[in-house]
Amino acid sequence: MDRRNCIKSLSLLSGGIALSQNLFGQASPKKEKTILLCTGIQYANMGDHGHVTGILNLLTTYLPEVKVILWPKIDLPEFDELISAHWPEVRIIHSKMDHDVPVNEEIGKVARQVDFVLAGHGEETEVNWVAKNYNKPYGIFGITVGTPPEGIRKAFLD
What is the reported pTM? Predict the structure, then answer.
């Protein structure tokens, strides 16, 4: 094979490799997806333990490649220890809301980086803040509605 045909063949080969990577997945690693999980209202309520541990089990079992950051309203060392003992890869961040704005500024940094916000019951304020301020998609789970929702709750559920 002469030099000209060799260069032509190598060019076609490298172009084919580049095209196949575009069509069938990049050779470079994809960005790790991150979920901000807002759930956990009361430590004394056994149902809240079930919500938090249940959704963590589902996420880590069925989406093991996704990074989870937990933003609970429960702010007790015992709760954090319980979660960390069983889900050491889950980061826990705390912040109370003051006039619909988190007190802990680190929440804003976290919200900027996440790909999705997932809320349990009672976290409408937190999720609305993230969704509106950082244009993040969100979903909900485990919400019981006894009467037709109104106002901000209706908008959140819709």
Answer: 0.72
Which residue has 């826990």 as its token pair?
A: 92
Write the pLDDT tens digit of every residue in 81-104.
Answer: 989 999 999 999 887 777 777 777
For 34-157, the fitting CATH number among 3.40.50.2000, 1.10.260.40, 3.40.50.300, 3.40.630.30 is: 3.40.50.2000
CA 52 to chain centre: 14
C-alpha angle 101/34/130, rounded to 5°? 20
- 136-158: per-residue pLDDT in tens? 998 887 766 667 778 877 776 77
Determine the Cα angle at 71 with ends 66 and 75, to 5°: 140
> CA 148 to CA 125: how far, in whole Å?
19
List the domain boundaries for the chain. 1-27, 34-157
CA distance 55 to 122: 15
Residue 127 in 3-state DSSP? helix
Tokens 């003992």 belong to which residue? Answer: 85
Give buried/exposed letters for 111-148 (b at 16+ CB in 10 A, else e).
Answer: beebeebbbbbbbbbbbbbbbeeeebebebebbeeeee
